[in-house]
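Hello again,

I reread your note about wanting to compare the complex against the isolated chains. To keep things tidy I'm splitting this into two emails, and this first one only covers the full assembly. Below are the input lines as submitted, including protein chains and any nucleic acid or small-molecule components. They are followed by the predicted structure of everything together. The single-chain runs will come separately.
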Amino acid sequence: MWWARRDPPTAIAAAVLVLLVCGSLAIPAVSPYSYGGQNLEQTFRAPGPTHWLGTDHLGRDILVRVAYGARISFLISVLAVAAHTVIGIVVGMASGFLGGWVDGGLMRMTDVFLVFPPLLFLILITGLLGPSLVNIIIALSAVGWAGMARQVRAEALLLREREFVTAARASGATDRWILGRHVFINIVTLALVRASLDIGPVILSEATLSFLGIGIQPPTPSWGVMIADGFTHLRTYPYLTAIPSAVLSIAIVAVTFVGEGIAEARDPRWRRR
Amino acid sequence: MGVLSFLARRLLGMIPIVIGASLIVFIVGHLAPGDPVQILFGDISDPIIEARARASLGLDKPLAVQYLGFLARLAHLDLGTSYAYPGMRIGKMIGAALPVSLALAAMAVLVAVVLGVPLGAVAALRRHSLLDRLVRFITVLGIAVPFFVIAVVLVLVFSLRLRWLPVSGWGTPKDLVLPIVIQMLRPMAYLARITRLSVLQVLGEDYIRTARAKGLPTRLVTFRHALRNAAITILTTAGLTLSLAFTGAFVTETIFGIPGMGRATVTAIFQRDYPMIQAVVLVYTGLILTLNLIMDLAYAAVDPRIRYA
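Full-complex prediction:
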């Protein structure tokens, strides 16, 4: 694997990420415990042979809950980032290529969305619409699309002036061909690079919302919920908080490294930002 | 182009953003499930009393009228009365909470600047040294590790194990330590990272080579040329991190029970206290816009190449 030798930190991060994803899929399927199964005679068990990562205040198996939390986290972040990437590409390209009042109107809209601190916006939407899985995804993509649209628009404006577009036009290519063949592919590549960098912050946002109690609702396990639950027992049973915190941090660090690795492989200039 | 006309144009440009923000908040608040009348008065069985309660809150009028009324009151800086604490003026609640959060954010960013900028600069000047590697490692951790996880670790170590600091509370200077440390970490990480990168970039410029070739002492090159030219990027980041510190307040204030804007926001959301939510969002919008404006003015002060355009 040539790329692993060229960029070892990214390779390690990618391996960790693959491990996390596989674990999140396999563990709940293989384990004899379910994420909601309570056993009030087995509460606060320290990590051991029957419960590898111990049990929580309701006697639920932490390993299964952490793995299930990973599913929720990855599901939400991938769907949310996919949604805001698509919206961002559509709005950014419309803005960049149609110009005029469409551009003006759309960009004023992104202004409004970019002024809000993201977390405030998230708290508002999920808090007011109610914290369901769908609403959380809606909120997360509502926060992310504006930045994506701005970048796609900037790239579209740049691409319009690039030599290969002029060359294609000079050799008689139609607008549709140029847009579909040259511009769209470049823009999608850029958008995907940015999307890979957006996943980490989105995982963090979801965990923060759940931690505050306006994200994923119990009994569904989410890393944020588990950290908040454990916080009450921090003095006596610190591992309740420590385990999901560690997994969450590892996941975000891994995703960040992979994202930066992808970005740098696509375009070395990215590292500077 | 003078400073005044620049200011005037920027202020005019803010109006659509403020209106947009208020409109979004207003619409989201009213599409939301959960009836404020029911929250305020409980279940009312008598329809006449319910209608009267609705009318007293102005909820019986069409949405557009309610929004215009909201804007008109806003123009008089009247933010209304809380639904959750009847009789409490929103303005008073904000007035109590805002200084707390502002002070906390300002202190956090101040500490972050004092620590982060020198760290980043030294890391850039001694590139590939052990310190450089350490700074890069810390910045990646600071950016990637969620701050509530850091909060958990710090509370566990300093409050619960060592018992040096209180677990939560507000009033004594000791209560300030953990919240400031937690809110300052991310801004510091960003600042160190950006400072390092922008100093590295400036060090690669031709004029630095020229200055060196002229035989200028390294100290002069570093301070007069490199750091001064990197200042604008650092300044931008410092401004950005202030809004990062505001956002961090949602978590730190909730964890430590600090009576600031962050906790007020989360509480208002839980209580569906519409007037308070609207006020909080508008205050934050105003804060961020003011901050952006100040940053724009500051750039021009630092960098003579930038005109008020």
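For quick reference: Chain B touches chain A through 44 residues (CB under 8 Å).

B.
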